[in-house]
Amino acid sequence: MASIRFRLNGQPQSADVVPDMPLLWYLRDALGMTGTKFGCGMALCGACTVHVDGQAVRSCITTVASLAGKNVLTIEGLSADGSHPVQRAWNELDVPQCGYCQSGQIMAAAALLAKKAHPTDGDIDEVMRGNICRCGTYQDIRSAIHRASDIQAAGGKA
Amino acid sequence: MNRRSFLQVGASVSAGLLIGFRLKAEVTNTAPRLNAWIHIAPDDTVTFMIHKTEMGQGTLTSLSQLLAEELEVEWAKFRTEFPPVDPAFGPMQGVVGSQSIRSSWGPLRQAGATARTMLISAAAAQWGVDPAQCRAEKGAVINTASGARLSYGQLATAASALPAPKGVVLKDPKQFQIIGKSPKRLDTRDKTTGTTKFGIDARVPGMVYAAVARSPVFGGKVASFDDKKARAVAGVNNVVSISNGVAVVADNSWSAIQGSRALEVKWDDGPNADLNSAGIRKLFAEKTLEAGAVARKTGDGAAGLAGAVKKIDAVYEAPFLAHATMEPLNCTAHVTPASCDIWASTQMQTTVHATAMQITGLKAADVHVHSMFMGGGFGRRSTADFVGEAVELSKAISKPVKVTWSREDDMHHDVYRPASLARFSGGLDADGWPVALTANLASPSILYTAGGGRAPRNGLDSTSTEGIHDTPYSIPHTQVDYHWTEVGIPVFFWRAVGYTQNTFFMESFIDELAAAGGKDPVEVRRRLLTKVPRALGVLELAAEKAGWGQALPAGRFRGVGLVNNIGSFTAQVAEISVDKGKVRVHRVVCAVDCGHVVNPAIVQQQIRSAVVFGLTAALKGSITIDKGRVQQANFNNYDMLRIDETPAVEVYIVPSTENPGGIGEAGVPTIAPAVCNAIFAATGKRVRKLPIRADELV
């Protein structure tokens, strides 16, 4: 057991885990933060996407040990009340169907918008093709990312 | 036996298990109960018990619309709960066969109207007036003479004591305020904040986590195992033999999965150790050279072909497919000597309940099924194999336990969409119109698996031939033969079931007949559909909206497909291009007639979803077998369609006052043939085997 210190959704966190424990399972099983989902365990589907120092990463292959000193953001920390522009757009357009992949989709989209305030369809394809949605909500995801871009540009007032 | 009658048999079996055990109310909601679906608390909180589960298909929202409409409560001024299994909801609680709206359309409006009538009666009694003088509005009863108002909460206790009136009158659809509209989905918000609880998110105090090593060969068994390496994995604290394999128990899911991989098991591979895809295909190909069980006979197929001016033959094939729900299978169970609690994302609550009763020997009232949101179902979660394992393990270790399947477990131990092979022959008259069609199919039977190994009656399984034997096309001589061919691979319902492969076969072959007769594909279908106006309607609408017959940009080509399944009619036109064999689908126009629409936005969502689901199968889906094992394991070799491959889908709904049809499976079958027919238009090459392969198109 090693004790790893990092920040989780803005709060200091000290994790005592076996060295190769992926963040996904630490979040879900040790902390009960179940918003981050298990989909494939091999960084193939994007369901477990979180941010580490602002970058979208797959928590199923990111060990807790690699997080020392870093900032981790999960769906639970994206906003206190579902008011992040991406969440607002998703909510407005009723994007989710089963909803299982949507935490990962939202985290991937939020990272994209943080870098590119007005992504093109090509930008969206490049980033979001890493996230599978078995319900096939892709068309709605695309519309919602453009809508989130507008909400963000209007300072959340769109 | 068709799928519906199977479900009815299943229902009566399960109902039989329940006889004599009136379930005690396990509902956390103790508010006055107007009927099984509707509870109203004195503080005006209205709770809808949604007895079917939610896997994305919108049941939670659309069933609430049926109740709210007749009860006269404002939209979203109510809560919802998934209630326990209770015969008050009917003999079978589950979400299969796109049945939810179809089976609830009458009963749930009736439940709403009955509760409303009871609330009006209670108000009238309190005021001492004729109930005819009262009306319900926005969660209250109004005395139309005095203007007095009593809220549902004020009336609920008195109303719940009244006998339920019989034969209440339902609203004239012209008065609908909520049905036919698209109110916001009730499950959206929680699904954007990560707070929705799926089965895999269940947490119970004292819970341990487990993964199970199962025989990699279908039908194999554990010969022996060495658990030394598994027990050496940090976090692993137990290894337990169960009927389906060996369970590794740990203090977190990851350690359990690592432990199960470290386990050294010697397997007795059993009779399927040499099974492979080529052998299965050969068996199908041989069988279909002989006459089979006759699934459809109109006129005389052989004579029709013999008398035809032109005759064509073709062999079509489809592979096994996995469900690959995004939420891998899992189940949390807590068995004690006196009770069993199960937290599961399930499509069949009743089957889960019956399975747990069987394993534990407990009475119905002591088995509690907690229905969780499903991260996809597509038919996979209508089994209870994943539930049985968890119940058995919890019983063995006397602890609450969550069994989580890895993606590899999920793909290797699925119950698959059957592989199938079909030989078609068709005949044309002197003018080039189809006059004869014969199809000879071989595949494993879903009803054989679903029926627990009972041979399909007369060698027929309607799920194996649906899409062909029940074609809406009128061809004077039509015969469909079927060879029930078990190969050792478990098969099951997969979103749109037999229509998925058979509509691809049938709609492609109709296109072949059109081409052989020198006819336009829409023109041929139009001529064969004159007796089925609703099918003709969606064909015409899709053709019109797609601009069928009009010029396309260079390099773009169109194809059409049509299906009548689950009580609905769907036509799709796909617009594609082919570059070095790589197919790109740009636009899909879909016309659907699903009868009376409860929620148009959800119908649209389901069609967009179905197109992606069907296109994933057409472009990528293939489960292959070698040495009795599935060769694919994860999304690297069983990939899903991605956002950059997804076409723009346009959905046009035919206005209708017919009873509702299903929608969840309506849009799946037609996309593969629409795309393949467009490929023929583009390349002159006919795709007769799925998935579509680039190297066969160059």
What would you say this structure looks like, in words?
The complex is a heterodimer of chains A (158) and B (698). Chain A is 37% helix and 16% strand. Chain A has six helices and five strands. A five-stranded mixed sheet of chain A has the order 2-1-5-3-4. The longest helix of chain A is centred in the last third of the chain and has 16 residues. The model of chain A has no long low-confidence stretch (mean pLDDT 96). Chain B has 698 residues and is of the alpha+beta class. Chain B folds into three domains: 183 residues, 2-Layer Sandwich (Aldehyde Oxidoreductase, domain 4); 148 residues, Aldehyde oxidase/xanthine dehydrogenase, molybdopterin binding domain (Aldehyde Oxidoreductase, domain 4); 326 residues, 2-Layer Sandwich (Aldehyde Oxidoreductase, domain 4). In chain B, helix 2 runs parallel beside helix 3 and helix 10 runs parallel beside helix 11. The two termini of chain B are 43 Å apart. The N terminus of chain B is likely disordered. Chains A and B meet through helix 1, helix 3, helix 4, helix 5 and helix 6 of A and helix 5, helix 7 and helix 18 of B.
